[in-house]
């Protein structure tokens, strides 16, 4: 059973501390106090986070904790906490564990009965969603998709019927490729909002259909730099649009009038269904 009881007697606490995603003023007072009070700071990149601590006038012992050493380091850190020391985990930016290291440590800490306390603050995903104007009652955060196109396409296909708003992190080098894959897997009409360089001097937003946003990125000389959150509207839930459409009927009518590829393209635009799914279905309808 898991409860929120304090650590086993004498043990310290593991604080999970969010740090800014650009604007240093987004660090909370509580985060500052916690960082000043702990015995040790575990950080993804100690040089990077050392600069933040220096800015705060805090001098602390720091331990590197990143994807490659997390398993090995966690045991040693938990020993220190079990011995009474308190530790703050921070990542390079934003909230630890959100596409950042920390899961192994937090899970092991909870299993050992060590108290884990979040100190909330900036998170690019939440900041982006809060101002995008897309539905937030349901969203699916998928982090970074695979870098390889085939694997990325498969994940997107698996999300094509998802009605929740989709949220991804992506590097500026791959953002256009991601949107092109979104267009083929989810259809050209999905609404997309991109949040670039949130909280920084050159914060920029792009919004529109997938096709519009790809065009806007091509037209913007600065789009190849900076950090991006990519948000995509969910699939239209069947029967909730102004008219509920029968995909098979739309396809059959179009196949009778148009070449197959064109029929699929138009059907995707009319129904909002994924082009690849419609193509598969069109072949079946044609055969049978
Ligand atoms: N833990 C972080 C958080 O809470 O958002 C995310 C870390 S993840 C390694 C880094 C990715 O988050 C970037 O590639 C980008 O997709 C997104 N990101 C971080 N800071 C951002 C910012 N200021 N504006 C837009 N996206 C940002």
Overall description:
With about 290 residues, the chain is of the alpha/beta class. The chain folds into 3 domains: about 15-120, Cobalt-precorrin-4 Transmethylase, domain 1, CATH 3.40.1010.10; about 125-230, Methyltransferase, Cobalt-precorrin-4 Transmethylase, Domain 2; about 245-285. Helices cover about 40% and strands about 20% of the residues. It has helices at about 30-35, 45-55, 70-80, 105-110, 125-130, 150-160, 175-185, 210-220, 245-255, 260-270, 275-285; strands spanning about 15, 40-45, 60-65, 85-90, 115-120, 140-145, 165-170, 190-195, 205-210, 230. The strands form 2 sheets. A 5-stranded parallel sheet has the order 3-2-4-1-5, sandwiched between helices. β2, α2 (about 45-55) and β3 (about 60-65) form a beta-alpha-beta unit. The longest helix is centred in the N-terminal third of the chain and has 13 residues, at about 70-80. The chain is elongated and about 75 Å long. The mean pLDDT is about 90. The structure holds S-adenosylmethionine.
């Amino acid at each position: 059973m898991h409860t929120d009881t304090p650590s086993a007697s004498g043990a310290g606490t593991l604080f999970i501390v969010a740090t800014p995603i650009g604007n240093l003023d987004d660090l909370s007072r509580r985060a500052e106090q916690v960082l000043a009070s702990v015995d040790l700071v575990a950080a993804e990149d100690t040089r990077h986070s050392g600069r933040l601590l220096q800015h705060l006038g805090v001098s602390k012992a720091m331990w590197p904790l990143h994807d490659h050493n997390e398993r090995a380091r966690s045991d040693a850190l938990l020993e220190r906490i079990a011995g009474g020391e308190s530790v703050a985990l921070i990542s390079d930016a934003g909230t630890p564990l959100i596409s950042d290291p920390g899961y192994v440590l937090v899970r092991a800490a909870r299993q050992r009965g060590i108290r884990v306390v979040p100190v909330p603050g900036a998170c690019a995903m939440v900041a982006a969603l809060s101002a995008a104007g897309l539905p937030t009652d349901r969203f699916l955060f998928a982090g970074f998709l695979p870098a390889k196109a085939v694997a990325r396409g498969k994940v997107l296909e698996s999300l094509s019927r998802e009605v929740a708003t989709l949220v991804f992190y992506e590097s500026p080098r791959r953002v256009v490729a991601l949107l092109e894959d979104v267009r083929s897997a989810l259809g050209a009409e999905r609404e997309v909002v991109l949040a670039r360089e949130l909280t920084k001097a050159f914060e920029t937003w792009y919004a529109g259909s997938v096709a519009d946003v790809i065009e806007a990125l091509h037209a913007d000389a600065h789009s190849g730099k900076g950090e991006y959150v990519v948000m995509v509207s969910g699939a239209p839930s069947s029967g909730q649009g102004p008219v509920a459409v029968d995909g098979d009927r739309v396809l059959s009518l179009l196949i009778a009038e148009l070449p197959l590829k064109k029929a699929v393209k138009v059907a995707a635009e009319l129904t909002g269904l994924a082009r690849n799914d419609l193509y598969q279905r069109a072949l079946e309808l044609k055969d049978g």
